[in-house]
Amino acid sequence: MRIDQLVPGFAKHDAISNHVLQLRRAFRAVGYDSDIYADWIDPRFAGEGARPFADGPPAGDLERVILYHASTNSPMAEWLEKVAAAGQPVVADYHNVTPSRYFARWEPPAAKSMDLARKQLEQLAPVTGLALADSGYNEAELIELGYRRTAVCPILLDLEEYHRDPDSKTLTRLRRQRERGGRRWLFVGRISPNKCQHDVVAAFAVYRRLFDPLATLTLVGGATSPRYQRALQQMSEELGLGDGLELRDATPFPQLLAYFRASDVFVCLSEHEGFCVPILEAMELGLPVLAYQAAAVTETVAGAGVLLADKDPLTVACAVDDLLTDEARRAGVVAAGRSRAAEFSLESTRRRFLATVERWLAAEGA
To answer: What single string gives the DSSP state of each residue in 158-176?
Structure first.
């Protein structure tokens, strides 16, 4: 029996790509042959052994299960629809598609791409044997689209990797900045309208004015909307934040670890997340999380952080100040976060994923 994976993009520092790699290791460890096929392969990730989708995999082999990672539009989806209708066993692993309304104003072509991705997801429903989702929020969407057999299987993430040594130069620089005083806010995620970094910037500006004029905010993540990124930069200038705001592009992992280690609070005001891996990363590293309760964020935090029903800038600023000035409360949030992150240990999530797939295989008589 083979379980081959299809992923539209295979990239370094990407949560889905890392999940795909962990799944391949898990499948091979229990005796399944398993390869990865990608429509686009980051040259920096070429050594990880993904194959071009154009080179395969062969269809029509009933001893081969194809596991498709759905998160964007892809020619893979149309191919899968055809081969699955002809009897090829197909499993979908759904990582969420951002609603196009968030991009319609900023990047119209991207919005059209998201509409196509959602259409492809719906078209795969009748021919997919098992549909997996990395949150209950994503599973509800699959059910609404007509997927018959679904299950929640959290994303595979090796949290032990986050305890490696951070980049020493970056950490030294950040610690020297801290010597001048001021709390450090952090958010990690693509610069994207649905992630609402503008709300974080607005709340941070209020926080600096009312509580901590030396505070700094770092936003880490490559831009999926250059226009939105430029608007953030203009907003920062109009608010007079100066060097209080640092916008970082996609950051090498050791440098990212340094930002987590040197920060005081992780602030997420995103309106649409299918899971939000950086929340778990922050929890694992002892960084208290304050987040807006929307989409899958409430489920991911699960009471192990500060959840806000209102993200008015004053409300957020006061909530951050309350959290950071009450040491006992902060310590409780940090402890709860670490306990929550422990629920996503690689051993646990790998076992759960394999058990779900193997139950389906047994039911199918494979």
So the answer is: -GGGGGSPPPHHHHHHHHH
